[in-house]
Amino acid sequence: MNFGFWNKLTRPIFCLAPMANVTDAVFRAIIAKYSCTKCNDEHAQSMHSQFITWTEFTSVEALCSDGRQFAQIDLTKIDDHSPTVAQIFGSKPEQFKRVAKEIAEAKVFDGIDINMGCPEKSIEKSGAGAALMKNPKLAKEIILATKKGAGPLPVSVKTRLGYNKNELESWTSAILEAKPSAIIMHLRTRKEMSKVPADWSQIEVMRKLIDQLPESERPILIGNGDVENVEQGRALCKKYGADGVMLGRAVFGNPWLFRNAEKPSPAEGGGHKSYKSYTTYTPTVQERLEALLEHTKLYIDTFGPDRKTRKTESSELKERDWLKNFDYMKKHYKAYCNGFTDAKELRIKLMEAESYSEIEKSVKSFTKNRKSGI
Ligand SMILES: Cc1cc2nc3c(=O)[nH]c(=O)nc-3n(C[C@H](O)[C@H](O)[C@H](O)COP(=O)(O)O)c2cc1C
Asked: What is the spatial distance between Cα 80 and Cα 57, in angstroms, rounded to a whole number?
């Protein structure tokens, strides 16, 4: 079994969930910066993160087509020193093999993950995403083909408990036959979408299945669903026996989410026993708004029309030739500007802004008025 970077991480392992049009290269870089307590010192030069990030899912079909440069945008990475896994989806084993080989040769990512849980109709229609749960034979072929192409990179699978009902035992057994390095289990069925609470007790069932294998063949087991912070994630891993936890929606407006995933040094009061009293970092409103500005600026510099000259100031947010639509930033504004007095007014201004200067002006005048008590 090729575990690659997975076996170099201390447990529990923390992962940032792939979220299309949310966890792009820019937001991942912002998360890596704010979640790392040591980013401002010498550790910033090394791969120090105690959490792994995931790209948005990317179609192997698109990556094998003439228009591949558009799909490649979702597989970009800004060097943020955190291990990053590239997530791909599709239904044709030969395309997985080809794309996995290209990803491995590019030497940008640390692992490859196959999406076998996406419930989106357009994706399922082509036999990809959650539809693969109805076709375990093809799912297995896809894992094996990806492993063939991936060379030294470990290959994982992100999936759900079953399609219409819980089929955990038969479905997990099918995946295990192809020997993936890790399984990330979103603890709901396809039918349940995100409408019911994630069933973490199912991790215990998986643990038993996995532990029947020889030790060297046991994939890393990551649980996913409804985890709000690293303390809760750590407790769930301990209670149910997962090797790690993946967090998704909790990161909206909170790039500090993984900050406590880092083991505090003894000088910081660290050591195993102190974990319980090590609480989740809560950023101030000022810090959140500063992160919002930095996030916006990096987004425009990376995906905006003036990226060649990096003229953030003159970027018109409605111009056409963006690598990624600026409207995706608006989801972030909703999350950053939430839960404090007059957040709604600021949010509305940001939604209507037409340039970075307008955004910066609105944020600065808001913080100035807050400081003077208005
Ligand atoms: C906006 C959004 C986009 C998502 N995109 C993906 C994706 O590209 N690939 C994937 O495997 N899961 C995707 N998911 C599912 C998440 O990775 C995760 O499994 C789900 O949100 C449950 O975790 P949470 O409760 O911590 O958010 C997406 C979820 C959301 C909310």
From this structure: 19
Is residue 149 in contact with ligand 1, taking CB distance under 6 Å? no
- State which residues form the domain around 347: 285-371
pTM for the model stands at: 0.92
Contact 83, 15 (CB under 8 A): no
Q: Which of 22, 51, 186 to mutate to test the pocket of ligand 1 (most atoms within 8 A of CB)?
A: 186
Degrees, nearest 5: CA angle 133-135-138:
115
Q: Which of 15, 118, 237, 337 is catalytic?
A: 118
- 358 and 249 assigned to the same domain: no
**Does 337 participate in catalysis according to the annotation?**
no
- Please tell me the distance from the alpha carbon of residue 129 to that of residue 303, in angstroms, as a whole number: 27
CATH number of domain containing 247: 3.20.20.70
* Distance of alpha carbon 283 from alpha carbon 272, whole angstroms: 25
* Protein residue with least CA distance to atom 4, ligand 1: 19
Same domain, 81 and 35: yes
Query: Using one digit for the tens of pLDDT, what is the confidence trace for 176-232?
Result: 999 999 999 999 999 999 889 999 999 999 999 999 999 999 999 999 999 999 999
60 Cβ closer than 6 Å to some ligand 1 atom: no
Helix-then-strand count for the chain, H and E: 13, 9
Q: How far apart are CA 236 and CA 368, in angstroms?
A: 42
Q: What angle do the packed helices 168-177 and 202-211 form, to 10 degrees?
A: 40
Query: Hunting for tokens 């995906």 — which residue is that?
Result: 303
Q: How many domains does the chain have?
A: 2
Tell me the per-residue pLDDT of 118-153, one tens digit each, with 9 for 90 and over.
Answer: 999 999 999 999 999 999 999 999 999 999 999 999
Orientation of helix 285-303 relative to helix 356-371, angle to 10°: 170
Q: Are the C-beta atoms of residues 234 and 225 closer than 8 Å to each other?
A: no
